[in-house]
Amino acid sequence: MTRVVALSGGVGGARLVRGLARVLPPERLTVVVNTGDDFEHWGLLICPDLDTVTYTLAGLSHEEQGWGLAGESFHALAAMRRLGQEDWFALGDADLATHLARTQAWRRGEPLHAITAALAAQLGVGPRLLPMSDEPCPTRVVTEAHGVLSFQQWLVRHRAPAVREILIPAPPPPAPGLLEALADAELVLVGPSNPYVSIDPILSRPGVRQQLAGKPVLALSPLVGGAAVKGPLAEMMLALTGAPASQEALVAHYGGLLTGLALPAGERCEAPLALLPTDTLMRNAADSERLARELLRFAERAS
Amino acid sequence: MTRVVALSGGVGGARLVRGLARVLPPERLTVVVNTGDDFEHWGLLICPDLDTVTYTLAGLSHEEQGWGLAGESFHALAAMRRLGQEDWFALGDADLATHLARTQAWRRGEPLHAITAALAAQLGVGPRLLPMSDEPCPTRVVTEAHGVLSFQQWLVRHRAPAVREILIPAPPPPAPGLLEALADAELVLVGPSNPYVSIDPILSRPGVRQQLAGKPVLALSPLVGGAAVKGPLAEMMLALTGAPASQEALVAHYGGLLTGLALPAGERCEAPLALLPTDTLMRNAADSERLARELLRFAERAS
Q1: B51/chain A closest Cα distance in angstroms
Q2: A220 in helix, strand or coil?
Q3: Distance CA B223, CA B292 (A)
Q4: Which of A56, A211, B207, B269 has CB atoms 3.0–4.6 Å from A61's, for a disulfide?
Q5: Which of residues 103-142 of A touch B (CB under 8 A)?
């Protein structure tokens, strides 16, 4: 079985990883997760993408929504509102436990990769989850309307206003083991995540792009018919490139990194790389598993 | 109207204070609350007695239980258990909001008395609530079975094992405004709280006993028929004094501080101070109000 590293943001990446986890033995799969969206809220360290991947792999996530826990309640949020506290980011009651446990360990000085591994193990997650870095590397979004915003302020508080630029801090190094996992990988899969704010932060960790050079790197496109399956990617591509979102623009954005692309059947991509036309939507775990199998077969054919 | 300072632990003190708040204008009542039980749990600063008094005055407390919020849920606790975290102290979901808001302000460097005032104001509490100190002054309990325990470890985790000694840290000064409130008070009321672990910590703040000298100080006895209305006071008195719990032992413990005592009708107390025999049980807000009125009248007669 192939040794796979998957690069993931939140919901889309988590859904692909769920399929990979059903097909690959756990020791063959490492998931590298964007932490550029991480932020402190209510005094707690929140890692939205890590939690989405963890909950999804643990079978605990809210199926339709894609993020958060199934059957979640929001009594703490209501009480925070009563106390005049910030209520623009909806943390659920059970979800709070994750942030409390993580923040406590983090304040004790435990590194994020160890905290992430411990939480995942407690929830019965098999594959290795790695935050892209142990250090904070907050992605910032430059907007016309509100100036420079942290990612969650941009996405959740201000509901994704028009973007002029994405700022990703260069220095913090990748988490321990990340470069080794990439060196060891026989296949790298890029989740159907937003390339600008979910995958670029991972690729910006020092040493990561170098490790990927020469590897088979397949991406599952987040675009269907020129729009994102989820989130404001199409608007972002238009604003940042001046051209409408397209499979070619996606491939071009990755700058020669990709060796193959899975895209919706019937869509065209003129870029010079291997193509896998298929149904790219993952409505449920069976879809995720089907796509994971197709991508692994595609990788075998393409190599 | 008399200017009153009430000294309070948790449930019993909160119930008396609820009555006082119905009888006195808010600006005439200051409640000084024990913080010797405060501790950190799940990385949050928990102040059980402050919260009990705040919730009770806000009309939000769980009526039968006396502490915690009415209609509370425990989804975060269940999720903490799933994550292998400590689950011996049951923090409710809505209650968590209080601890999150307080801890966040506290880590920013705000003093506890200001945080307490802000939380109380948000919940519509009129009278001034003062923690006995802005600094941590953790009460410790020396036990045969488990050595030295923090208060909540002793009470909740180990379910109040036999006590050999109570250790109250002497140095931390009273909260700003506390000595002034006592100096200004025309009447001091001691709630029906445990004298050893709820009232002694307040009395141990430097300067407090001096301010009380010469003032009318009336206590509502926590004892009914030689047992505590709530909690392990009788066992503690027996263990620490070698004699069964009694009204005389209670008065003696306060060492000349009290000028009057409200005790259950029909009970005797040979100590040389004014007595108010009455129904001391506070089953509901009406009982609290009746007792508050009786104590204020008793104070007028006794002066």
Answers
A1: 13
A2: strand
A3: 17
A4: A56
A5: 103-104, 107, 119, 122-123
- The answer to the question of residue A174 being in a domain is yes
Structure tokens at B215: 């003032």
Q: Is residue A171 part of a domain?
A: yes
- Is residue B227 within 8 Å of residue B48, measured between CB atoms? no
Q: Encode pLDDT of B235-280 as tens digits.
A: 999 999 999 999 999 999 999 999 999 999 999 999 999 999 999 9
- Residue A163 lies in domain: 4-36+126-302
Q: What ranges in A200-280 are assigned the alpha helix state H?
A: 200-203, 208-212, 233-241, 247-253
Contacts of A138 (CB under 8 A, 6+ apart): A36, A38, A39, A150, A151, A169
Rounded to whole angstroms, the Cα distance separating B12 from B10 reads 6
Does the pLDDT of residue B160 top 90, yes or no? Answer: yes
| Lookup result for tokens 């990788």 | A299
Among candidates B83, B94, B101 on the partner chain, residue whose Cβ is nearest the Cβ of A97: B83
Q: Looking at beta carbons, which residues of chain B come within 8 Å of A70?
A: none
In this prediction, the residues of chain A whose per-residue pLDDT falls under 70 are 1, 303
> Which structure tokens are listed for B278?
């009455």
Q: How far does A102 lie from chain B, in Å, by closest CA?
A: 10
**CB contacts < 8 A (A, B):** 95
We report the CATH number of the domain holding residue A137 as 3.40.50.10680
With respect to residue A115, please indicate whether it lies within any of the assigned structural domains: no
Nearest 5 degrees, angle CA B108-CA B109-CA B110? 100
By the 8 A CB rule, do B196 and B252 touch? no
**What CA–CA distance (Å, rounded) separates B50 from B57?**
11
Residue of A nearest to B78 (CA): A94
What's the per-residue H, E or C state across A163-205?
Answer: EEEEECCCCCCCCCCHHHHHHHCCEEEECCCCHHHHHHHHHCC
Per-residue DSSP letter, A67? S
Encode burial over A155-189: b for 16+ CB neighbours within 10 A, e otherwise. bbeeeebebeebebeeebbbbeebbebbeebebbb
pLDDT category of residue B51 using cuts at 50, 70 and 90:
very high
Facing A94 at nearest CB: one of B69, B78, B103? B78
Nearest to B251 by CA among B279, B221, B276, B278: B221
**Torsion angle of the four alpha carbons A196, A197, A199, A200, in this order, in degrees rounded to the nearest 10:** 60
Tokens 């405004």 found at: B177
Nearest-CA neighbor of B217 among B246, B247, B255?
B255
| Residue B100 to residue A76, Cβ atoms within 8 A | yes
The count of structural domains within chain A is: 1
Separation CA A75–CA A73 (nearest Å): 6
CA-based nearest residue to B99, from A85, A182, A51, A149: A85
What integer pLDDT is reported at residue A66 of this predicted model? Answer: 87
Residues on chain A touching B104 (C-beta within 8 angstroms): 42-43
Q: What are the DSSP E strand ranges found in chain A? A: 4-8, 29-33, 39-41, 44-46, 128-131, 140-143, 147-150, 163-167, 187-190, 217-220, 223-224, 227-228, 260-264, 274-278
Q: What is the pLDDT of residues B107-147, one digit of tens each?
A: 999 999 999 999 999 999 999 999 999 999 999 999 999 99
pLDDT value of residue B53:
98
Whether residue A73 and residue B75 make contact (CB cut-off 8 A), yes or no, is yes
Identify which of B3, B1, B6 has the alpha carbon closest to the alpha carbon of residue B291: B6
